[in-house]
Amino acid sequence: MADQIPLYPVRSAAAAAAAANRKRAAYYSAAGPGPGAERPSRYQLEDESAHLDEMPLMMSEEGFENDESDYHTLPRARVTQRKRGLEWFVCGGWKFLCTSCCDWLINICQRKRELKARTVWLGYPEKCEEKHPRNSIKNQKYSVFTFIPGGFVLAVTITREAIDEFRRFQRDKEVNSQLYSKLTIRGSCFIRTDQLDGETDWKLKVAVSCTQRLPALGDLFSINAYVYAQKPQLDIHSFEGTFTREDSDPPIHESLSIENTLWAGTVVASGTVIGVVIYTGKETRSVMNTSNPKSKAGLLDLELNQLTKALFLALVALSVVMVTLQGFVGPWYRNLLRFLLLFSYIIPISLRVNLDMGKAAYGWMIMRDESIPGTVVRTSTIPEELGRLVYLLTDKTGTLTQNEMVFKRLHLGTVSYGPDTMDEIQNHVVDSYSQTHSQAGGNTTSSTPPRKAQSSAPKVRKSVSSRVHEAVKAVALCHNVTPVYESRAGAATDAEFAEVDQDFSDENRTYQASSPDEVALVQWTESVGLTLVNRDLTSMQLRTPSGQVLTYCLLQTFPFTSESKRMGVIVRDESTAEITFYMKGADTAMSTIVQYNDWLEEECGNMAREGLRTLVVAKKALTEEQYQDFESRYNQARLSLHDRALKVAAVVESLEREMELLCLTGVEDQLQAGVRPTLEMLRNAGIKIWMLTGDKLETATCIAKSSHLVSRTQDTHIFRPVTSRGEAHLELNAFRRKHDCALVISGDSLEVCLKYYEHEFMELACQCPAVVCCRCSPTQKARIVSLLRQHTGRRTCAIGDGGNDVSMIQAADCGIGIEGKEGRQASLAADFSITQFRHVGRLLVVHGRSSYKRSAALGQFVMHRGLIISTMQAVFSSVFYFASVPLYQGFLMVGYATVYTMFPVFSLVLDEDVRPDTAMLYPELYKDLTKGRSLSFKTFLVWVLISVYQGGILMYGALVLFESEFVHVVAISFTALILTELLMVALTVRTWHWLMVVAQFLSLGCYVASLAFLNEYFDVAFITTVTFVWKVSAITVVSCLPLYTLKFLRRKLSPPSYSKLTS
């Protein structure tokens, strides 16, 4: 083998330099002028900043009193006149033309379909030709072509992504194929919207009234009618349309609202539905409100990519140096390609395989952890991200709290009732209805209702008992709750017999509503004696403590919306024919509706500081004439096709004047188990926690304090409401003066700050130990996550439990979903799924730490494995006159990367530097992980130096100690190389696992056993001699002993932080 090596005489340095200079001179003489000349830019920004922009942010209030007009002045970018003609074309115009053409072609190919209003025809088959998108959801991130194999090395990565994608496909298929069928009241049904808006309570939906009068179900398909619907939009809480039946005289026109719709993604929980499909596929509300899924790349993968680029440059540089030292003799470009192939092991191609297999192992370990049962790893590409997080953004309701509402307080202005005094309310209710019942019995002969007779009496101050009675009755009537009774076993399923076969006992009754707050209020009225026993589309029945059933006709229902922040009902008492308008809502919306009082604002603040969710309840008595006038105007507004929502709101607001304030209710959402210690642990780990919620400011602030999101020693700065640039400027200046205090800000004020002072606000907010953003919409949550990533460059994690948290979860570097009362949509869309918030602590400080540390060690060791053999090849080529001849060939190279070193190297995924209980006890250890010291250019250079040292020792040692044949050099150096790799794995391990020992001996056994079959590469007679053994041992000791000594001295002189805790 040595005879076949071409030997070239080493030329003198002067001759080599002269040849190189001649070639360089010839090259540069042929080269043209460089592109260093500056080209004029097409756009030039004229800074016409207003007076406000020139001010420093830290200014006094007097600066705003001078010029009010400066607040809305912004710098404007003006486009200077472009150069024309040949000069313009040469100076960059050709690029502009090419770019414009490409953009035009892309827009043509990817043009989005314009969304339009549509008319759906019934009974006109010839008109049903409009095409609609496919009615299916798609959460897959890849197409089939993504998974075409690109070689064995990429097969592992492709297989892993294919498994993740198949799981997404299965989840999509499960959702698309769900069918439910239960019977209920004719003309209505219940649906669950937990997969759309995160609310688990049932919502009542009603049918088009004119279709309910058809004799038979089949007649629905023989009528001539059409549905006009607005164009597809994002808002899931509103819908405008009309139903027109043309085969009647006169034609019937009926308005359609949100109560008549069932969005895709909702579940028919009770009832059967026949409907007309209006929106399909991409035009459905659920798809339009879901951002496109994206592939997430971990920070460790990005860092390894940078190191791999550096290794590629090293590969090219080393090959060029070898060809240069060779003197560019003969076909030098061919030698350059040969050197690129010989040193290609510098590029760790097997790194991707090892890391992907390691990520799969980490996911398996997480799901097998008995301390966090039910945890699911849905994205197997980013387990290391759990160990690099700096910001944790969390939802409140259902995430930090249990989403189980308990009634805690009733306030009447002069008297307040809490959990200890609820029996007093019950006594007042019993007394009130017993008196009413006796009065009604005494006046049975009178044709005039007793309440009517008292109407002309002078107004007197109501007693506490009557005020409690009015408040409880208002709470029992003003809601959207429906009692549900389960059918008895073996009961008939026909709608006519459904009511007969139901058990109407109290034990069999459950309440369903659009909000858990509503259910809590109705359950409370039941506990104090006034029970909701029945409700349909037109009536409601209450049972008094004495067993009497009161019937109320439901004349109108005004559902709660996020814009109005209140809901109301108009009912008629059948016993007295009185019409009453009841309304309840948030204090911000009700304060201007109710009559003047001096206690509402103060008591709302007090309840919010206790962590209670408050509702203001009011009423207004209506005469028959007032109601008839309202009804006509209301129905006319509902039939309007333009600005329907504004017209309907205006009609309803005409009633919302000078309403009588009845009471203030307080409901508590209890914290989840283990929330306080978990947040304390995360804060000690150096993780900054932001709470993003749609709840009111006072409640969010109280939950932040009670959950220890804000520690007891920290101050809280409540950002005042701002609506203009000037107000935001002043408030930011005031906030800048605060130090080490938590920030509480509302969504409206946040929007104003981000509009005018995005960079300044994010800079100040990122310095806070905790931030609470209240009244946040789902899109605002996602935007905050994106801004944090953009401004800080740090890793973010978002955690939530509802469908309204999906956008935030997908925008974060790492998304965690909780399977809770708000459904599974957040869990299915997240990268990791857990069952309780307290599992986040162990997921981050234990599994996040282990995954990051293991992957960092594994990645650097795989690069070391390629660098050491490339160093040996470089030494070999330089000794033999820079010959481009491989040192090891055939199976030796394949075995080195597989069976000889694969198992010990991969066993590093079992290593751990800190035991799990120690990591949980000392979360401060997590802070070092965010600095990225386990994998950096510094550690990379250390491993490069180790590789160069060991590769040089192994190769030079083998060349020095071999005597006669070149094949002995191969045997000595390769055996020493294998032993060195095994010893280096042992040097890297911090905590031994029995599988690591098995991997070491398995690899060593495979190598020893293969020596008998490698006659082509080894001299079997030589490797069985004592000479071979001592030479290999000597070289191995020289290559490894100094490193062991340095490691021992470093641990003694400069031990890592965790070693003091584990010793």
TrEMBL record:
<protein>
    <submittedName>
        <fullName>Phospholipid-transporting ATPase IIB isoform X5</fullName>
    </submittedName>
</protein>
